[in-house]
Amino acid sequence: MLFNSIDFVVFLPLVLLAFWVVERISYKAGNAWLLVASAFFYGWWDWRYLGLVFLSGAIDYFASIQIDGSTVPAKRKLYLVLSIITNLGILGFFKYYDFFVTSFCDAFTLLGSPIEPYTLGIILPVGISFYTFQSMSYTIDVYRGDLKASRQPVEFGAYLLFFPQLVAGPIERATHFIPQFRRRREFDLVNAIDGTRQMLWGLFKKVVIADQCAPIVERAYADPGHEWAIGLIVATVLFAVQIYCDFSGYSDIAIGCARLFGFSLMRNFAYPYFSRDIAEFWRRWHISLSTWFRDYLYIPLGGSRGSNWVRVRNTFIVFLVSGFWHGANYTFIIWGAIHALLFLPLLLSGRNRTNTSVIAADKWYPAPKELGAVLLTFTFTCFAWIFFRASDLQNAWLIIMGIFKGLFKHPGQLLEFPGYILSIPTIAFIGIMFVVEWMQRDQQHGLAHIENFLQTPYRWAAYYALIIVILFNSGEEQTFIYFQF
Predict the structure, then answer these.
(1) What is the per-residue DSSP string for 102-125?
(2) Do residue 177 and residue 199 come from a single domain?
(3) Which of 123, 356, 437, 440 lies 20 to 30 Å (CA to CA) from residue 308?
(4) Exposed/middle/buried for 46, CB within 10 Å: 0-12, 13-18, 19+?
């Protein structure tokens, strides 16, 4: 079930109303209702894959109880390893089996002994990377002693399947999220209103911007060998906008929706395209995943302690694994490697935490140096996005060559603007989005505390305007990009 669908428009009010009715009985009844509703929400795609979520959750539920109830180090470690291997095994089979088989056969072909690959054509269950990491981190937190194991299966199931963030995050930490299932939730009208605003802003970014950029990007990237340089450049920039509005839009809807139920989810985006270097970008982009890798992979490997070699090794491991997490394709690995190469000079020179505050705080506009840093960081990010979006390495190479040939061999092409790219409303809405988020760059989302600077008539006019453009741009339901991960 998509957030941008009629089904969800019907589903959400019914579930929300029933939740606050049963929540008055007991918070455990509220948990049970959320578990049922979330199972229905996920099963809307394919009920068969619901069993995978329950399997992953059941393993971690029982493994964590064994870990929490034992003082024998060997036994605790055994159940932790069981949890990790099982989770990664399920994820690896569904997401990477065909990739590894094909790569293995390609290697033998290069050596002169061709092997016909036997692939299964496995359909990737929606959200498997997200709920697997969320479930696995719960077991790790229990093993570390950061959290007591849940002995309430309904409580744990509601935590794992909570429908607003089940499919594409944020990847919640058990230490932050499970305690919210162990107490009664209180309806907060102010919080609910702001959550509704956040959902509205997320829908605007998804439907009005991301979905309108999608066909332009698809056309250019489908056949880059016959695309003009300016078309490839514009499509690449538009993809950067598309993936941000698509994914941060989902996160805004998920976080806002959770607030209607009295829950707090972690922030997942903090205006990453206003970053002044790649290190700052990764503190602001997909925060729940980047901090997950930091806490459960980078720091256990040794983090930034030790020699420069250790720091380089750990950085590459994290970024390459992050790339591979996104998909079974060499393009994602290259994407991760590019970010590692951009991040390392900052880390090794001790400048990776230079920009930790909001850009141009208490000012209307950035200083020229800050603006230049933002534009340079955005340019590097767009270059890396080429590999992320391209279907394969050959496609990515054609795009890069097409851009550089246009820039250096045929600069006149840059003045020949393909007509299909021109979409004045889309460009205008992108501009509005960036202006609003620039003005709100110290807030949680684009419409946060809007009452502080817009009087009631103008505020409602803005709401209605957003609703109208969302409805006007609503056509065929388009899935969210990160559903494929």
Answers:
(1) HHHHHHHHHTT---------PPPP
(2) no
(3) 356
(4) exposed
Does 156 share its domain with 233?
no
Residue among 140, 1, 167, 126 nearest 63 (CA): 140
- Verify that 101 and 178 share a domain, yes or no: yes
Element (DSSP H or E) covering residue 95: helix 73-110
Q: Say yes or no: 165 and 261 in one domain.
A: no
Q: Which of 226, 286, 326, 449 is catalytic?
A: 326
Of the listed ranges 49-53, 156-160, 418-422, the one predicted with least confidence = 418-422
Q: What are the CB-based long-range contacts (under 8 Å, 24+) for 470-479?
A: 470/200, 470/203, 470/204, 470/207, 470/208, 473/207, 473/208, 473/211, 473/212, 474/4, 474/207, 475/211, 477/2, 477/4, 477/5, 478/4, 478/211, 478/214, 479/2
Distance CA 51, CA 61 (A): 15
Active site residue 326: yes
8 Å CB contact between 248 and 202: yes
Query: Could you give the number of structural domains in the chain?
Result: 2
- DSSP character string of 129-171: HHHHHHHHHHHHHHHHTSSPPP--HHHHHHHHH-HHHHTT---
Residues 383 and 452 in one domain: yes
Residues 80 and 60 in one domain: yes
For the chain, percent of residues with pLDDT exceeding 90: 63
Assigned domain for 314 exists: no
* Domain final position from 152, 185, 218: 185
Residues 200 and 161 in one domain: no
Report residue 74 as tokens.
């060997």
CA 314/CA 308 separation, integer angstroms: 10
pLDDT in tens, 278-320: 999 999 999 999 999 999 999 999 888 888 899 999 999 999 9
One-letter amino acid at 97 equals: Y
Q: Which residue, of 137, 155, 185, is where some domain finishes?
A: 185
Give yes or no: residues 127 and 220 share one domain: no
